[in-house]
Amino acid sequence: MSQSGMSDNKSASILRLYLLFFIIFGFSFPEITGAISPTPPAAAVIIPLSPSGIDVGIGGLFQADYRYYTESERADNRFMIRRAQVELTSQIRPWLMVNLEYEFKDDTIDYLQDTFAEISFGSHAARIGHFKKPFGLEQQSPDAGICFAERSMGEYLSPGRDVGLMLHGAFSQKRIHYAAGLFNADGDNVGNRSDGRDDPELVGRLVLAPFADSSNEYLRYLQFGGSGSFARINLSTLNVKVKTTGMVDTGRNIYVLSNNTKFGVPQAADTRWRLGAEAAWAWRSMAFQGEYIRLTYTDLKPVGNPPMNADFKSWYVNALYFFTGETLSFSRGTLQPIVPHQPFDPATGGFGAWGIAIRYARFLGDEQWINPAAFVSVKKADAVSLAVNWVLNPMHKMILDYTYTNLSDPIRVRVHPDGAIDYIDKENVVTIRYAIDL
Q1: Angstrom distance (rounded) from CA 413 to CA 74
Q2: How far apart are CA 30 and CA 364, in angstroms?
Q3: 411, 422 Cβ separation under 8 angstroms
Q4: Confidence category of residue 372, pLDDT binned at 50, 70, 90
Q5: Omega within 30 of 0 (cis) for the link into 417
């Protein structure tokens, strides 16, 4: 590509980000734009489309980070745009809703995020389009309900988004939440179909909240559940890349499993399945949650070797406390966004909501697939995160996150011009985030 073409693409990207920032930042301060503002959690600006009588809600997500590493081997200290999204939602009929979410960043695989149509019937709904597969508590939680700079390492063992069809809803006075569907097994990757297999992936999640309608405040927000997925795969779906908090949005990983493995290029693959278990509880200004995820590829056949499985595990536990007294709650299987008792307003003396979160997470990689000479994978990683949250109002939040990760094996991070190589066996990273979430 020519220099002028690259410059044009860069300019277009900058213009798109400026447009996104204007939309989100302006609509998040209605007194500036003149928009009507009830400002409930995750509220969108409603625009009527006349004469159709259809209303369109405009929402979005903007996250700007500064990331700092204490290791001298790293040269990654920088400002970055973590997410830049606009979302349009329309209730076309009482039973039909359409959602369109677009990611403005160029360095993303899926520009269309949660883009779907949903038909509702009572407390149940059918959804078709491109959206998150129903797996796991942390993965399903919205960004407004995540109190760390990044989700845990188990996110990279979870299925993420894809195109498919899902049925979800609740039974028994919302004590039972379920979601299950069929999805593409390999996203947009249609290459390397050596065996011609193209079967859909079955994914499901079940959450039990036995005291959801109870008047007992100690048990009302207790829930536990499980998730699972299964797919017959081809070699194009053999791609595991696990990252730490400080490696997100970089080319670095703490585990890589792809077509080029320790044993060379596999000749065949059979199935991929995931299992997840979760539990969570909230009471007044405290919340706790934990999760276990296992990902397994079966019968990977390397050249000159018998078929073998590749097995990965991850788990985390975290705790959250808001010392300004906000009530924390779980609803529809996820932690709900925080609503400050006193939104930040210097004129009235409001100072927003202040909370602290701590998390311990572990990742276990499959040792038999690690090539020791490559320095791109570890057998184990342990991470501790401490985050301070300042929720100015339901749409604005700041996070100060410190995460320490200890690696069982060294990872190559930099090659100098003279051929010298830098490695790390630990990571200390501080992330400062400002987020606008409509």
Answers
A1: 7
A2: 47
A3: no
A4: confident
A5: no
Query: Is residue 157's pLDDT more than 70?
Result: yes
Count, residues in the chain = 438
The domain in which residue 116 lies consists of: 3-437
Bridge partners (DSSP) listed for residue 345: 350
Q: What are phi and psi of 75, to 5 degrees?
A: -125, 35
Cβ contact 28:436 at 8 Å: yes
* Beta-bridge partners for 406: 382, 426
Choose between 141 and 44: higher pLDDT.
141
Three-state SS string over the chain comes to CCHHHHHHHHHHHHHHHHHHHHHHHHHCCHHHHCCCCCCCCCCCEEEEECCCCEEEEEEEEEEEEEEEECCCCCCCCEEEEEEEEEEEEEEEECCEEEEEEEECCCCCCCCECCEEEEEEECCEEEEEEEEECCCCHHHHCCHHHCCCCCCCHHHHHCCCEEEEEEEEEEECCCCEEEEEEEECCCCCCCCCCCCCCCCCEEEEEEEECCCCCCCCCCCCEEEEEEEEEEEECCHHHCCEEECCHHHCCCCCCCEEECCCECCECCCECCEEEEEEEEEEEEECCEEEEEEEEEEEEEEEECCCCCCEEEEEEEEEEEEEEECCCCCCCEECCEECCCCCCCCCECCCCECCEEEEEEEEEEEECCHHHCCCCCCCCCCEEEEEEEEEEEEEECCEEEEEEEEEEEEEEEEEEEECCCCCEEEEEEEEEEEEEEEEEC
Least confident among 165-174, 231-240, 243-252, 310-319:
231-240
d(CA 180, CA 354): 36
Query: Residue 189 belongs to a domain with what CATH number?
Result: 2.40.160.10
**Amino acid letter, 315:** W
* Domain count for the chain: 1
Q: Is the dihedral of CA 366, 367, 371, 377 positive or negative?
A: positive
Q: Residue range 123-147: average pLDDT?
A: 95
CB 62 within 8 A of CB 20: yes
Distance CA 154, CA 242 (A): 8
| Segment 70-100, tens digit of pLDDT | 999 888 899 999 999 999 999 888 899 999 9
Q: What is the pTM of this model?
A: 0.87
Q: What is the pLDDT of residue 172?
A: 87
pLDDT above 70 as % of the chain: 84
Q: If pLDDT is split at 50, 70 and 90, which confidence band does 174 have?
A: confident
132 near 143, Cβ under 8 Å? no
